[in-house]
Fold each of these.
Amino acid sequence: MKDITGKVAVVTGAGRGIGRAVAVELAQTGARVVLASRSITELEETARMAGSGSVVPTDVRKNDDIHRLLEHAASKFGPVDILVNAAGIGVAGPVVDFSDSDYDVILDTNLKSIFFACRGVLPSMIERCTGHIINIASIAGKVGSANLAVYCASKFGVVGFTQALAEEVRQHGIRVSLICPGSTDTSFLGSSSKSSKSREKMLSPSDIAHAVTMIVTQEANSFISEVVIRPTMKP
């Protein structure tokens, strides 16, 4: 395993769920972690759980906020080595009931924010010929589901963007990886959307965090382009 001690890692969506688990595990593996989400209270709790971490309240839908986040990381620790885009939101419901604002919030949070963050870290990574970007998508980025059309559209977009970006920057020594989790025990789609599923059979956020660690500790001559994680038993 490649040692990531001292590497600078920015994790979006770090206030809870998958992002929190990723941030905690990266910190415990030795990375210097910068934590981003909208809630400073949740971020501070993540930092306590991780034992370290620099907290930056961030609305990932806003390019100015992403720029400020990355500037903070660079000034405090140095250039970003690892970017994990884990921020996400889901709204379930029939398309006919969706408002324009629902659509915009989902696409801006799940897809546009990844574009902003990747664009922000790439110049430094290209200059240094190193770096790792991990985008958290979903099984919903592979297969459509009723009442999740807009969410699926955003995650299909993450899959396509990640695959294309990986080909674009691999010549610079930059590794871009995709993780597509199945049903995970988080609150981000709301309790009603998961009421029929058995929580104990779901993935835990730590399962996805373990995959992130596996990816970023690969030796430099190879990279894991995509990981699909499913619960052993259907929830």
Amino acid sequence: MIDIVVLPGDGIGPEVTGEAVKCLHLMSDERDLGLQFQEYDFGGIAIDRHGEPLPQATLGACQESDAVLLGAVGGDKWDDAKVRPEAGLLAIRKELGLFANLRPSRVYRGLEHASPLRADISQDADVLVVRELTGGIYFGERETAPTHASDLCSYSVEEIERIAHVAFRHARHRRRKVTSVDKANVLATSKLWRQTVTRIAEDYPDIELDHMYVDACAMMLVTNPRRFDVILTENLFGDILSDELSVIGGSIGLLGSASVGSGGPGMFEPVHGSAPQIAGLDIANPSGAISSAALMLEELGLPECATILTAALEHTLADGARTADLGGNATCSEFGERVRENLRVQLARNDAHLELLATNRGCCG
């Protein structure tokens, strides 16, 4: 059995996660994967019910699971809370040892017109951002005084080495190019980052490495995104650049992400936020959650199932199904059902293909 903890979270989180889980249930039933799901409170809803964003019961279940599927956290309701829902995200990443955030972004077939970039610029863009998650300014010592404030940005060689290995390994399954992004002309941490990444690259002679300053990268992402394959960068830069990159495909609602570590359960979540203003209206785009589910299947060692689910999502979008963020009128639940209809078709096609291969092997054996 494969144990999956589901953290629906806040806002539209329960809606989009629900559609993704239904897709996974269908996949599991058809392929006898043995996926088991348990829901736990996390984020704002956990603050309301338990007084903290990451209750011990939730953390314990996540630590014992094979994977964690997260919806979204946060909202205006908790702006004045003593502990914000987002604090739960930082805590769970630390407790699960999740140091690498993988954010793929590309332009889906049929959605070229939805990109804010010209079609000749955005077409065929396909970029993976590998963002370091546990170091940098987000975790450094803070000081606040009436006349000044400071945030410490710190990185160790070990932290840089392990995230660099993740980027180079993923590049081997893509177009074999890594762009390391830093600000080495100004920051000491970036100088160390560049030196370390350059050294690690020697272990991957089959991968092309180039370096780019973060400001130049931000400009290049909107002028020539096709030049990038894998972008490797630190926590703050990765947060900003991956959000910039997310709009190239036409909607942040399309994108999923994975946070992984060194052997424990990974956490998979859509890139978008909780969007409390549309929560409960059944109009959110579940594509990001479904994409996250596909990334989860990949990390669980089920690449064929991941490919089939991704193909079902792609066919749904290519067939013209559109939620409100893409200018359409399909509801969240309607879109999810369309994906599952295409998923059944993809599963049947795959079965027929495997049967044909087996027949041919029998004839020629």
